[in-house]
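Reviewer comment 2.1 asked that we show a complete input and output for one of the modelled complexes. We chose the zinc ion case, as it is the one discussed in the main text.
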Amino acid sequence: MVQSAVLGFPRMGRDRDLKKANEAYWAGKISRDNLLAEGKRLRLEHWKLQKDAGVDIIPSNDFAYYDHVLDHIQMFNAIPAKYSETKLEPIDEYFAMGRGHQKDGVDVPSLEMVKWFDSNYHYVKPTFQDGQTFKLASNPKPVVEFKEAKDAGITTRPVILGPVSFLALGKADRDQSVNPISLLDKLLPVYVELLEQLKNAGAETVQIDEPVLVFDLPLKVKNAFKPAYEKLSGSNTSIPKVILATYFGDIVHNFDVLPNLQSLYGIHIDLVRNPEQLSSVMGQIGSQQILSCGVVDGRNIWKTNFKKAIELAETAIQQLGKERVIVATSSSLLHTPHTLESEKKLDPEVADWFSFAAEKCKEIAIIAKAVTDGPATVRDQIEANAKSMQARASSKRTNNPQVKDRQSKVTDEMHNRQSPFPERLAAQKQHLSLPIFPTTTIGSFPQTKEIRIQRNKFTKGDITAEEYEKFIEKEIQDVIKIQEELDLDVFVHGEPERNDMVQYFGERLEGYVFTTHAWVQSYGSRCVRPPIIVGDISRPKAMTVKESKYAASISKKPMKGMLTGPITCLRWSFPRDDVHQSVQAQQLALALRDEVVDLEAAGIYVIQVDEPALREGLPLRAGTEREKYLSWAVDSFKLSTAGVKNSTQIHSHFCYSEFQDFFHAIAALDADVLSIENSKSDAKLLKVFVDQAYPRHIGPGVYDIHSPRVPSEQEIKDRIEEMLQYLKPDQLWINPDCGLKTRQWKETKAALTNMVNAAKFYREKYAKST
Ligand SMILES: Nc1nc2c(c(=O)[nH]1)N[C@@H](CNc1ccc(C(=O)N[C@@H](CCC(=O)N[C@@H](CCC(=O)N[C@@H](CCC(=O)O)C(=O)O)C(=O)O)C(=O)O)cc1)CN2
Ligand SMILES: [Zn+2]
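Response of the prediction step:
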């Protein structure tokens, strides 16, 4: 029979239970035992849910309190000394690596957190030392959780991140020169030991994730697969059978690795992203190997098209036979919300088009049954699915002729500002009269508990729109007063009215629907509710003008309007799968263009259009796809911003810097001012701006906003001094790395005070010298 498999299930729980438990634990409100019990409860609930849905192969060890890569760092004892020296309890040491720890005389920053492939999930980057050794933790998590499930009567398939990916996704610690992949020999015995323990506990198969196989790999990494999987498969009967899983791309360009993997039990491939790789992979795998076909999307919320999924599975079965095919989710379901059942407010017409994690589990079981016992055995479900596909395709909601008409009239000129930068700069100088080293923030100020409570009351109808508006106005007044006291140069209104920088716009745009409970983990306990693009996008009315205009009216300094750019709106939403993303980006760009022009007309002469997700959207492999993406992505940013006068200053913000490999696109945005995350990187990264003779203005972040730690004035001066080695004084803005919404007021004021003082020091220094 054809088995169904899930590669991983979301951890947060139906009501973000894990977020709540973690945050309560961090705040000292619940005990460690309470937290661990909640984790156990969630795991059990999720296993049962999958079992009840009819899933044959259910994952374990997909759960993590903070992040699954961090789990591996701790399990293999790849823990940098500064954490192990704290002698904290294991779970506290774990959180210290994930989010830093400042308590009871311990003061350690977090490890670096970076994007997981092209998703909005962040993982904790393994950090290796030159003399790195590894040691398996006693009672390793995968073994404990496998037994936990088994005790509950559920036999699971443990998921482990593979050794090649674990190393390749890590880095050498600061001042260390080790190439992570060179540590493979030291790491493998630990994997063998872990796998042996799993086998002893009763695990017959394990899923080992090697997602780096979708990248273009350096030769050393490619060559690591052979020695790794010689040890972890085949002749070694004291370990479970291994399914090696890849996702988020195709592995065709890494085929030369596959012959070295023939002793593996099977391979999993993502056929949602790359269905075309099926036939070539079938041609390459070993004659006994299992092929796990990822046909249910782990990255989006659309109902699976049963007809297409069954066809793909049938193609595999024809060549390999039923016993050698598994049907599965394309990737872990981590990137999808828990269940559609929680959505009580969705229009039933569109709700019928969606499938969240719990529903996807049912889908995969139905697909497996259809290909095992024949479609007739699930005829009702297949017919209902076809009807739903048909209804979506012909719905009026997906198609708006006015939007199409406007898109057809977009011209090249609409992408360009009136004049080149030097002329704009002159006009802006006159208009804004800013000092050198101007100070600003990235947009949001602390989203306090009070703000969230008031918004929640408003959403539930406990307070009126008027009362909520008054509350927001008061918040804006407060942040303006604080910015005056801090003596910042370009103000922001603080974004108190926004639940999230993308969802807020989704809620105001036609063509979108949004949810009440569809949370997805972004990092640690932080979650997002990506709005869903269901149809052509347009802007029924201004979205941000009221708040910005009000803020400007009560402020003596220039007010910066704040928008989320087209690519970030697209990437951090669930996009349509029936229209190319470039089309959706252009629709967003046109809506935002109107907003930019309206802001200018309302007297807002500095406008920031955030594009932190531009980098993340970059295709994972180098090549023409990347250039194609960058071309339409850059165009959409330009289209959204180019409608203003020379004297209006366009800012953009990026909190994921690594610009080196696509700097030409950053330059092509033609933004007057860029603010970028920089505090955790080496100032050398700024060299690219020098090498490329970047002429426009830049605010490299002078401090990290992810931690409550307050940087001293001296630290900030040191950062500025470093930056001045690369950038010209009159090119430099002084700002934090990113928005301050996740921070508390106390540390925010202290940090900004130091930042403004540091800027003033340089302002005076350079005023004297010129
Ligand atoms: N979409 C998105 N992606 C992003 C970022 C981002 O800002 N947005 N930033 C980067 C880092 N990622 C982040 C992701 C989430 C958060 C974040 O702060 N999330 C908040 C939720 C934000 C939100 O939607 N808030 C809503 C709902 C708040 C809420 O939980 N309300 C309670 C009720 C109120 C209460 O009692 O507290 C409820 O619904 O139960 C609001 O403010 O209205 C959280 O997890 O806590 C921050 C950074 C990268 N990706
Ligand atoms: Zn940011």
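The domain at 425-769 is CATH 3.20.20.210 (TIM Barrel). We note this here for comparison with the apo prediction described in Section 3.2.
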